Amino acid sequence: MAYGIQIDGVNLDNSSLSVVAKGSLSSAGTTTLTKSNYSGITEFKVVFIATGVRDTSTGELRPTATVGSTTITITQPSSGTPHQYLVLGR
Amino acid sequence: MSYGIAAYGADGKITFHSDYSSIVYAGEMTKSANPVMPTYEGDHSITLSASTKTSNYEMSWIVQYTITLDVDYMVPFYKPAFDGQEIAIMDIVNEGTSWVVNLLFSGASGQYPYVYAFAPLTELPSSAVTLNSYGIAVYDANSNLVFTDSKPPLRIDDVIAITHGTTIKSGSKGTCGNSSTCHVNFTSDTSTTYTGSTNNTTSKLYHIVPSAYGGLAYENSDDGRVYNCDPFGILSRPYAWSYKSWTSFRGTVKHPRGGATHVAGWQGDFAGAAHQYRTGDCGFTGFFGALLGAFLVVFTGGAALAVIGGALAGFAVGSLTAGTIPSLKAYDDDETFDTSNTVNLLVTDTSYYGITDNGDVSP
User: Fold this and answer.
1) Residue B244: alpha-carbon gap to chain centroid
2) Apex CA B167: angle with CA B165 and CA B169, to 5°?
3) A contact residues 55-74, partner B, Cβ 8 Å cutoff
4) Which of A22, B33, B146, B223 is the most buried (most CB within 10 A)?
């Protein structure tokens, strides 16, 4: 390779997702993250981990995430159940 | 960053960065409970045969996996057992140093998908990470290991935003009358196809926890009088019958090979049918309120909880979920929930992590 990093004879030329933020959601509310706080990251993806067994008899809703131009908004609905979130970036 | 190291891929995006933990492969999850298709078995229930569960109720199998992993965050990826398998990760439960995944899959009971656990490198205990005697180790400002060449980082081939539709079935379900053997057809007929940029192959791994769920229901009833109280057919007694059935559905995703499409559809996780026929005494006294009341009780969530508790004893309701006992809803009407939520489907490949591609699983 003409430039870059090679590990064990393999060129490391693929981007990878790293954890730029993480947290837990238990009560209804909104969490806002500012994208500019995460140096070098140009692409953000949010993954939710439902940390419990879903009870379909209660009309439970999962949290949502919106990645805007400057912020990432994570919303836990009032009928939500505990979740974790990972904001992944590359 | 005023110090540290950052590396970028050919696409100009981060490969690793000393401020952020990479996500790494942490181990294969093992099946900890055999696949089940739970059905309602309470009062007035109609037994669903194995073939009817799939042909009329579109049921899939619920299976449970576990892994011992002392981390606070875990991201499961699955590898379908065959081309076009419909899958939904239903639940992820952390109990101490164990993680449990409940998953719904189509196909034969032995065709459960492979499930692999990924976790932030900073979460892994030091005993789980062996540094090479050469290569790269990157630490953050708190001296946490955030990247090492001995643990390849999560390399994502594709990210697709998936949203399930609001309708499970738009066509006719058919009809059932006063019968304890009849079944309508709840097979879904709606799906949404999304096209990514990477072809699906046997070696691809997928992460998605669909949000959508719902159910289809059918109900029929009638009442009247039957003239059998005397040999001449003059005197009568009241009769009434009621028939109800339902399938509880989860939003699933399948990944047909040979292309880059991903199909958001539906599969049943819990179903049931019940029939009741009653006659009263000769004369004009009735029982109709009692009959309907019995069915109302049968189909409440509370009854469903008891059913699942029996059907899945030691599976999902047992020691795993003391604080959050689940209840699979029995449906009285067609409903869908949480369908407006867009969820990210992440696609990666076994080859990036040295995971053996075991190929497909035969029925």
Assistant:
1) 23
2) 130
3) 55-62, 64
4) B146
d(CA A86, nearest CA chain B) in Å: 8
CB contact under 8 Å between B7 and A8, yes or no, is: no
> Which residue in this structure is represented by tokens 């070696």?
B203
Q: Which residues of chain B have pLDDT under 70?
A: 1-2, 283-328
CA separation (Å) from B93 to B56, B65, B251? Answer: 31, 10, 19
Q: Which residues pair with B337 in a beta bridge?
A: B213
CA distance B243 to chain A (A): 21
- Residues B57 and B49: their CA atoms lie apart, in Å, by 10
Residue type for position B198: T
Residues in chain B: 363
Radius of gyration of chain A (CA): 17
pTM for the structure as a whole: 0.89
The DSSP output letter for A8 is: T
Task: Specify the higher pLDDT residue, A9 or A37.
Answer: A37
Residues of A in contact with B10 (CB under 8 A): 13-15
ipTM of the assembly? 0.91
Q: Collect all residues with Cβ–Cβ distance below 8 Å to A85 and sequence separation of at least 6.
A: A21, A22, A23, A24, A25, A31, A46, A47, A48, A49, A63, A65, A74
Q: Mark yes or no for CB contact A16/B153 under 8 Å.
A: yes
- B120, A7: Cβ pair inside 8 Å? no
Cβ contact A52–B342 (<8 Å): no
- Smallest CA-to-CA distance from B77 within B110, B104, B113 is with B113
* Burial class of residue B92, CB neighbours in 10 A (0-12, 13-18, 19+): buried
3-class secondary-structure state, position B303: helix
Q: For chain B, which residues make up each domain, given as ranges?
A: 165-346
